Amino acid sequence: MGRLVVAAAVAAWAIPIAALVNSVVPEPYMDEIFHVPQAQQYCRGDFLTWDPMITTPPGLYYVSLAHVASFFPVAWMFRLAETFDVLCSTAALRSTNVVVAIVCAVLFHDLLLCIRPGIGDRKATTYAVLVALYPVHWFFTFLYYTDVASLAAVLAMYLFCLKKQFWISAMFGAFSILFRQTNVIWIIFFAANGAISYLQDLYPKDNVSHENIEATHQPNKVVSGRDNKTASQGLRRRRINSPISKKVVVSESSKVYNSLAEEVWDVCLKLWNSKCDVLIAFAPFVFVMVAFVAFIIWNGGIVLGAKEAHVVSPHFAQFMYFSLVSATALLPWHFTPSRVLELFRLFGKNKTCSLLATLMSLGLSFIVVHFFSIAHPYLLADNRHYTFYIWRKVIQVNWMMKYMLIPLYLYSWFSTMNVLGKSQTRVWVLSFVLSVALVLVPAPLVEFRYYTIPFVILVLHFPVIGNGKLLALGLLYAAVDLFTLVMFLFRPFHWEHEPGTQRFMW
């Protein structure tokens, strides 16, 4: 029932708004001027012609072909070229993302129930609708970009990985690369954590588990008399929050690691001792990785076209931007008085270590901001994107501002890692942070679109909050959505040096 409610809710706003966008902006805009003609070439059956300005593989075009063919099977069957030119219009191609956005919301709903079985269908439905309203994701639902389909493929990969259907998961992983090459990092992330979860089944008496922290913070309940006996012996029991199995209580021999290094070493040792079993179970992901490496060698790099504008760069400041953007989009979890006090108390428990960690983080952040803040030519010259104004009016408003933002960056990352650490192992948190860095740091261009997948992963693993906060956040998202839509549709402008109508967008 929850799936139907989610699908109906997203469709209720997506379909009429898509019709409005197509009526006001019927012609391809921005990156659509490359994607739409390329998809239309595929509609005509021409799979050999390729626009050298397109940087991503043709996954979106294949999905559009299936989408159009499902609505017009007769025309597809008889290969009516002239008919398909009409069917693969800009509006028809954009509708691909409308359908995929509905799929994204349903996948998120199922993932949340899988990761947090006790959350309840109603709460999972609310969260799925909220994520569908996330402003950046919501906006690109109505344009012919690769981001929505990329997110759907990654979520499907994650869902089947959690269900231990590794061949299907790897298939979706390979498909996700056809939308955006950097999704290979999420393949590694899900496969690695899936392998660690697989080890828990191989070593049932030596699992590391973490409490399933919910918003209510209810105390753990006693399950049986044996549990009472164990508790009386002073052994701490924790329930595994596993999306794959039923509620499991860790045995008396369970470990509590004293440090991240100890936990990493133990995981590596177990992986090495069980390498044959793990390699056999996760062989599908190995095949995908080998194929991707072969593609890199054949292509001479990760980017398909316009390579000179997408050179891999040490853009470490991206890592900082993501922390603040994601924390701002998750206000109820980060920027509340109680949250600030909680972090201060945490730092106060070990003042020496906390002071050293803070000073080291500040020093590294100053180096990153000073030496590795890259201003891409597109960022400086294109005033159609909000990032242009954020860069000029905020980050570069004066020489001090970019340094004054460092405490906010660090607070956002500390808060994010602390929240994740309450429900995930330290190895999981470390692997997530490294994955975010590997996805974002090489990208020279600042684009909020690049932050969507790690943001959604954060929402999936953050503690559940009350309905009041969810409603407030949903209203905030809706207000931002309305603002961006009005600016895009009804506040056009013109460039003196170039004909055509320009519009504001993410």
TrEMBL record:
Subcellular location: Endoplasmic reticulum membrane
Transport among keywords: no
Enzyme class: transferase
Alphabetized Pfam families for the sequence: DIE2_ALG10
EC number of this enzyme: 2.4.1.256
Enzymatic reactions: an alpha-D-Glc-(1->3)-alpha-D-Glc-(1->3)-alpha-D-Man-(1->2)-alpha-D-Man-(1->2)-alpha-D-Man-(1->3)-[alpha-D-Man-(1->2)-alpha-D-Man-(1->3)-[alpha-D-Man-(1->2)-alpha-D-Man-(1->6)]-alpha-D-Man-(1->6)]-beta-D-Man-(1->4)-beta-D-GlcNAc-(1->4)-alpha-D-GlcNAc-diphospho-di-trans,poly-cis-dolichol + a di-trans,poly-cis-dolichyl beta-D-glucosyl phosphate = a alpha-D-Glc-(1->2)-alpha-D-Glc-(1->3)-alpha-D-Glc-(1->3)-alpha-D-Man-(1->2)-alpha-D-Man-(1->2)-alpha-D-Man-(1->3)-[alpha-D-Man-(1->2)-alpha-D-Man-(1->3)-[alpha-D-Man-(1->2)-alpha-D-Man-(1->6)]-alpha-D-Man-(1->6)]-beta-D-Man-(1->4)-beta-D-GlcNAc-(1->4)-alpha-D-GlcNAc-diphospho-di-trans,poly-cis-dolichol + a di-trans,poly-cis-dolichyl phosphate + H(+)
Function, as annotated: Dol-P-Glc:Glc(2)Man(9)GlcNAc(2)-PP-Dol alpha-1,2-glucosyltransferase that operates in the biosynthetic pathway of dolichol-linked oligosaccharides, the glycan precursors employed in protein asparagine (N)-glycosylation. The assembly of dolichol-linked oligosaccharides begins on the cytosolic side of the endoplasmic reticulum membrane and finishes in its lumen. The sequential addition of sugars to dolichol pyrophosphate produces dolichol-linked oligosaccharides containing fourteen sugars, including two GlcNAcs, nine mannoses and three glucoses.
Protein name per UniProt: Dol-P-Glc:Glc(2)Man(9)GlcNAc(2)-PP-Dol alpha-1,2-glucosyltransferase
The species this protein was found in: Urochloa decumbens
